[in-house]
Amino acid sequence: MILPEVRAVIRREYLQRVRSRWFIAATIIAPLFMAGLVILPAYFAGQGEQADRDLAIVDGTGVLYERLAPMLEEAGWNVTEERWRSEVVTELRRAVADDVIGGFMMLDELTLETGEAILYTRSRPNPIRQLTLRSSVSRAALGFQLEQRDVDVEAMLSGGELRVEMLSAEDGSDAGDPQFFVAYGGSFILYMVILLYAISVMRATLEEKTNRIVEVIISSMKPWHLMLGKIIGVGAVSMTQMAIWLGLGVLAFASGLPALIAARPDMADLSEIAEALPGIGLIALFVGYFVLGFFMYSGLYAAVGAMCNSDEEAQQAQFPILLLLVVPIIMVIGVIENPNTPLSTSLSLFPPFTPILMWARVAGGQVPAWQIGLSFLLMALATVGIAWVAGRIYKVGILMAGKRPTVPELWRWIKEA
After folding, report:
1. CA 242, 362, 388: angle at the middle one, nearest 5?
2. pLDDT-above-90 percentage for the chain
3. 0.90 cut: is pTM over it?
4. Which domains, and CATH codes, for the chain?
5. Using alpha carbons only, what angle is made at residue 147 by residues 141 and 153, rounded to the nearest 5 degrees?
6. What residues form DSSP beta bridges with 108?
7. Which pLDDT score, from 0 to 100, does residue 159 have?
């Protein structure tokens, strides 16, 4: 049961932030703006290229059109075949000039040997469409050559398969690109969100201290109640913001991506992003690591805000705490690549590093369940310990004025509190 005075602080911290213009801008307008920067240019570029998708193919080899046409149609072109004749180039040039077709491609015997082809068009295609055309022609020519040698064309062109047999459960990660994306992206989001909102606790404490509002508040409640209310209130704001971002992300993915692919079929590979999205279990772990990580660092930053008297002092005093967040984000790629080495395991079980590095291991590799449970236990114990120390620094420092205390003075505050 939360005490009434703590609930009052939580309500004040929460409402003060969610009603601010900055919260609305950062939560709703900024994600929409970023999505617009990515989606709208691609969509309108696709609309502008719509007329250029009518493509005629002159197949001088007599064997490549049947292979090439399905690839290009899947990528969004409307393909027609033109038989070779002496006047075909002149006729197709006229058709392009009259806007009957967007362009035409010439295939000959050299295409079979080197994959080289000639594209005639009104305007230069964008790099993605050029790459699609070039790779499609090469795959068609290579497929024909492989078929002449009785080779399994589909297996070879799909890139083959590398089967990995694990010699032991501790032998490394089987992470692929989607897992790497989830592991690194999630770790970076944890780093940014914990940092931003933990600093918000410090700034809220520093603002009340410098404005001397805290003297009035402390007269009616205990200092640690005030600290607890601030941490929970700011934490609720962060959870609200992440929930809105998640909802907007799901909405954008569900509605915007199909529309983008419809406008730009050459970007159909974007649909594979769904494979990288975490399931309910991983999302629950992500929230758990965020909550405990936020409480750990919020307690430390609240103590920094209580013992400083200006924003300049706070910027200097927070540097050791900032290092605890920066070091794991620097090491995260190595941990993702080697999630079960002794070094990765020990670092991920060090509570200040756990939110970022243990998430990277869980999302990017195979982590025993007992290590996940141990990581939460160690974080919970560290959170209690940090709260105990930070609460005592906060109790004395919130009413102190003057120069920033030294380490011996901080130790004296802890003992006196």
Report:
1. 65
2. 10
3. no
4. 51-157 (3.40.190.10), 173-416 (no CATH)
5. 85
6. none
7. 60
